[in-house]
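Q&A log
Question type: sequence-to-structure
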Amino acid sequence: MNTLNLLSRWFALGAIGALILVSSPLRAAAQDTTTTSVQPGAPSLETSVRNAEVVYVEGNDLVLKLEDGKIEHLRVPDSDVFTIDGRDVSVRDLKAGTRLTQTVTTTTTPHYVHSVRTIKGKVWHVSAPHSVIVRTPSGENQIFRVPEHAKFYVNGEPKSVYDLRPGMTFEGTIVTDDMHTVVSQNKTTVGEAPPLPLPQLVGVLLFPTLHQLAPEPTPVGTVTAEHTWAQATLPQTASPLPLIALLGLMSLALYLGLRLTRRTTTR
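Response status: OK
Response body:
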């Protein structure tokens, strides 16, 4: 007897499943309506600041050296704006050595979603507490999963899924409260361009000495005014020794003459 009852139940469930598969999808929107309201909550702000130095720029590729020494490669779109020394530039205008300070403000806003789903129809089959098969006024069957907080009203009286019976006309209300967050970010990047390079030191400026100011030797065969004047004077190579010898002889002769004159006078 128990075996026959078990077979009968399995046969009934198989017939129900076949009927659900054969039946077309539910199109009676009037018997299944959902009202949803969204209430935003108080947003929360989070600000983070990070510093970096531009190492390499090529087109939209940007390589940064972070504060901790790590190297980060970014693909920056042309729409991103960098404020360098008070001037807005794109990533293509950045130079190696530029120091950047990026301030990221993250806004997180909770959204509370309140949904009320109303189902109207006639109970065709109940699989408490998980599901119920409802026949709509159009004659179509649809299976619904029953949440724990679902409420059913039969003739205006609240019922649970365990109170439903095949053939009952009911109105079911499913209230769902959910919350999801919306996150938005605002990035501001400012920086300072690298200082201009100092002029390269080529050498030390030297002033010429006196011997460096002397004229260069005149090439052989070239006649200049200085050369003509030098020919009119004594050669610089003449020695004063003959003149000194002549003056010595004249002095000696004068001495001897004076001595001879003195002796003659004495006698």
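Response note: Residues 45-108+185-192 form a domain with the OB fold (Dihydrolipoamide Acetyltransferase, E2P) fold (CATH 2.40.50.140).
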